[in-house]
Amino acid sequence: MTSLKPFHATDLFRVNAVNLDVLTENYNIAFYLSYLAQWPSLFFSTENPQGEITGYMMGKAEGRGKDWHGHVTCLSVAADYRRIGLARTLVDNLERQSEDPYDAYFIDLFVRASNALAIGMYKQFGYSVYRRVVGYYGGEDGIDNEDAFDMRKPLKRDKNRESVREDGENFRVRPEDVYL
Amino acid sequence: MCTSADVRGQQKAAMSLQKSFPRRQYTLWTIVSCYLLAISDVVTTEERALFSTLASRLIPLVEPARTAEEAVLKARVLELLPTADQLISFLCDPATEKWNNLELATMRLDALVKSGNWEKVFDTSMTTLATENRDDFESWKQMAYAATKLGNDERTSALIELLEKRCKTRNGALAGVYYASLKSTEATFNAAKFYFENFGRQQCAFDDLKSYVEALDAQKWLAFVDEQITFAKSMEHATQNEVHILVNARKFHYLLDPDDKSFVDKNILLYNKLLTSLAFQDKLETDYFYGDDLIIMAATWLLQGRPVSSPVPDQDLVILVIILLETAASNDKHQFRVRLWLTRLYLYIGSFQQALGHYNALAIKNIQMDVLSHYLLSRVSTICPTWKPLISTRDIYDSNAVQTPYHIKKIYESGAFSQVAGCMEFGKRLSDSVNKGILCVEAKRVARILGMKMEGLGINPILRSTKWKENRDFSILYGSTPEETLENKYRIGPIQTGVWVNALILRETIIDEFLTADKRREYALALKELLEKQDLQSLTHVEKWSLETLLELSSIADSATVDGVAVFQTTLIEGMEKYAKLEETSLSWEWFHSLYIVVETAMISIWSLDSLVAIWGTKKNGKVVASIAACKKAVQTVVDDIKEDAKKLKLRRDKWVRDCVKRISELDILKKLDTSSIDIEYLIERIGRGQDESLTILRNTKI
Questions:
Q1: Residue A48 and residue B204: Cβ atoms within 8 Å?
Q2: Do the beta carbons of residue A108 and residue A151 sit within 8 Å?
Q3: B297, B291, B196: which is closest to B236 by C-alpha?
Q4: pLDDT of amino acid A99
Q5: How far is B372 from B146, CA to CA, in rounded Å?
Q6: ipTM over 0.85 threshold
Q7: CB of B424 within 8 A of CB of B372?
Q8: Helices A29-38 and B395-414, interaxial angle, to 10°?
């Protein structure tokens, strides 16, 4: 059973079932609060009927002109609630919000080029690889950096689908070429 | 004002700005701050009504709302009014709905449900689910409930039609179960059956159904779920879906058949077989293996003392459970529920280093430090005094003091009004966290026991007036629910509450101010009152004794006589010997806890008496000074005996390990487990080494 709920700062005390997972980063206070301060409607969670948080989405809106877009910063689902469509629910809502009220052209996210599971999932959601950001994920001591795929999905405002391209896996850019 | 969380100050400042510079932004700030005051605990009932009214009267000055956040603010203010009419009217207004805002949508449904306007609840939920195509369980639930309340054929038909159309979605199927539960047990059974047939392969199936299933015929339900367990090839080649159905079925057995003596044996045998399954072999390293829950269930079954086919002696129970869980952990490195239990159980038997290893594997950091560090650091100064994990946990509170007020200001500036109240509460809860209070006290005690410098560790006695906030999560431990006492049973003493913190703050303050007579008396009196009037359930017996001993010391400082010192010596030694009694059978957190408190109390006693003698110089009666010297000598003797006993325990370690390995290996339950991934003898040896480390620290304390 999944209900979507807006996220508030006090929910940070309740995300343990999600954040104890090895893949989920625990950010410092400033990171979470800055998202709540700037993009409150893009930070939301899913709950089970016991009121326990089972997943959450941290999103933001950024860019200028035709680069104005929604962005998936962090999507995390508790281990017991995986493979039941929660990620889809969270991403769908971010897309909805990015279209209205943010009126963005597209949504994007960064994913490790080796993360076949996540890439496959987002492709099922209609995302495609826009470009390969070489060495985006820094390894320890600057060695073994890993590439990221910048994956995108055009929204209603992008009628001509200018925000996506074919064969993005081979379109290489450097991290400094990526807007903040 | 944001920095000090002063809501009154915020309101006054905002009001001044709004009057001096009637800008829209300052009017909004005034409304926000009035709202914050109205919902705070710093105002009287009359003030609450006043600020609510003030906020609602300012709303027209900023209409129409320019952002969804302003609309949320208006809704929050309208929530404060005595009746819900204006709130509902505003939330259901198409102009409000056009904001497409989750906060407003949530408030809308909540307000309608609270008002009992079931027609509107039904229609709103139907719009969400069917028209907007948003699959929200809360909407499903309220629509089903509204249909039942209304008893209206048209709406009931519409509900049933939608349920049938969406029965293959998880929310839809579960909504069907919920709706059936409002009808009859028979209907609930059929709906739950349908759900499990379609979704039993999902890990969450058990959690989704358990509250409904508890009302059903247990045997009938268990027979059904057992029928769902099938394997295309064999159990040893089970796929992920097949494993999930199997484990979910076992979870229902755990829930509904608590007297099954064969439960643990069956779970262990199933787990062994599943280690060769595709589900286990093909999983990513960062995925969890759901089969681990078979072991966790077996572990918690044993810990609860439920029936088993071959009994386990009490002295070996926790170690047996540790072996079960270590087996699961060795096969599945990232399973946090296993590691949390291991952290708790190792601490329970006083093997801190092993607990630390599993705790570190969880990579708990930032806000989690406040919520989860108690799993490792509860009473750490008296289990295995350790500095590094204790100090690193305190960083979050320093960060909160800076970051949260900064971001509250940002929220005012950016107009994210839906977040102000939450951020203010967040900041307050961290600032007044009882865990923070505990860690402050523990840091001082650890430093004392380890002989470290105490500069910078002073505790402000004013802190004891804090309304301590409880943020700790005790329910994340598998098998622990508000109704269960399992987590309670294996906790490191009673939960340390605000009373515990206040008592220990007073204790530390008395120690710090021991030579300043008026302050010492003031805090001693406060401690005495606390011990007499407050609920002391959060203190262990030996902690209470230690506090009472300090009060006696304070009396000695006031008026030391030969007889007084002699009486103090007698009661102190009696208490020390009582609480330091060596357990021959097995070590536990309780024994270490008692020993460390006894030694710490001895330390404080001797230091205090020495300080008094130093202050008195030659002015005091020589007989009193001599009686103090005798007292110190008696205390030292007891401490020496404690250290000697600790040494003997250490020297008997090899025998303890051999005896333990022999006993454990002969347990029938363990013989059934595939322990090829762990070395039992090495594991037990490490338990012993962990306990020995605590013994070593104890023996190295300097009185």
A1: yes
A2: yes
A3: B291
A4: 95
A5: 40
A6: yes
A7: no
A8: 10
